[in-house]
Amino acid sequence: MTDYRSPTTEHRFSIMHESFSLSRGKLVSFLTCQRQFQLRYLQRLPWPVVPLAEPSQALLDRGQQFHQLLQRHFLGLEIIPAAIADDAVRRWWSLFQRYQAALPHGRFLTEISLTVPLDGALLNGRFDLLILGEKDGTPFAHLFDWKTGKAQDEATLRQDWQTRLYLALLAAGGAALLPPGHALLPEQIAITYWYVTEPDAPRTLHYNTAWHTQNWADLAALVAQITALDVEEPWPLIADWSACQNCAYRVLCGRQDAGSQPVVNPDEEAALLDWALEPELP
Ligand code: SF4
Asked: In this structure, which residue's CA is closest to atom 2 in ligand 1?
């Protein structure tokens, strides 16, 4: 079997210095509200400042348990269903065992981070499962992502910044995970989303060069937009107050009147979980 190398360790930089990191959560935060991005990631104000509503915390806890369970599974550890305390997590595990599609042969890397530089930023992603292998003498990289929220259609997933960022990261930097001299073309990269809510219908998206060219240009434009802002000045607040309902910084922005909204929507739950599972690089 091919000897694939382990990834490099996490890099730590600050926007106040030469580089800053951009994860999916940070990209979404910036696109949602530039002030939120500044308060959370540049000024490092605590988030959240109040405990989550009970339903949201329970959903978050279950999602994290399920991801940890699958991580242990792909590390080769035995999973004993009777030892899974939470009924929902035990049911999800049962569904996963029953419906899991055949995985390609290769090297399994679970909860692995990949960081790639782009114009003064460090793009970063953390993958639930990455399988690196060879087919007909050509390397491939296949990502798998486990979801406990509402299933999304493929058109929506194509536009999701997780999809776009993760595929772009592998196309731009995935060769670093391969043996020396190996390249990884966009056409050799794919991502599969598996949902506990639709376990028999995983969504697989295949990358290609045209999509990567557009993705990379969009990411570069976002990096340029961020670096053009003055870190000493308050960044723009979002005009739509409804976005403030789940933001910890309402008081700082004088938007207490936006009210608070417990996160019970499955879409928001999924975003919250993705955010919570991301590494908090500077
Ligand atoms: S409260 Fe609203 S305006 Fe202020 S940071 Fe949060 S989302 Fe942005």
From this structure: 244
Number of the ligand 1 atom closest to the C-alpha atom of 36 = 5
Cβ of 45 below 6 Å from ligand 1: no
pLDDT (tens digit, 0 to 9) for every residue of the chain, 282 residues total?
Answer: 433 333 333 333 344 444 689 999 899 999 999 999 999 899 888 775 455 666 667 788 898 999 999 999 999 999 999 999 999 999 999 999 999 878 999 999 999 999 999 998 999 999 999 999 999 889 999 999 999 988 999 999 999 999 999 999 999 999 999 988 888 999 999 999 999 999 999 999 999 999 999 999 999 999 999 999 998 899 999 999 988 987 888 889 999 887 766 554 444 444 555 555 454 444
The verdict on the CB of residue 250 being under 6 Å from ligand 1 is yes
Q: Is 127 in the pocket of ligand 1 (CB under 6 A)?
A: no
Quick check: 106 and 207 in contact, CB under 8 A?
no
Query: Using CA atoms, how far apart are residues 82 and 106, in angstroms rounded to an integer?
Result: 30
Q: What pTM was estimated for this model as a whole?
A: 0.85
Q: How far apart are CA 223 and CA 19, in angstroms?
A: 11
Domains of the chain: 24-277 (3.90.320.10)
In this structure, which residue's CA is closest to atom 4 in ligand 1?
Answer: 253
User: Rounded to 5, what percent of the chain is helix, strand, coil?
Assistant: 45, 20, 40
- For residue 237, give the ligand 1 atom closest to its CA: 3
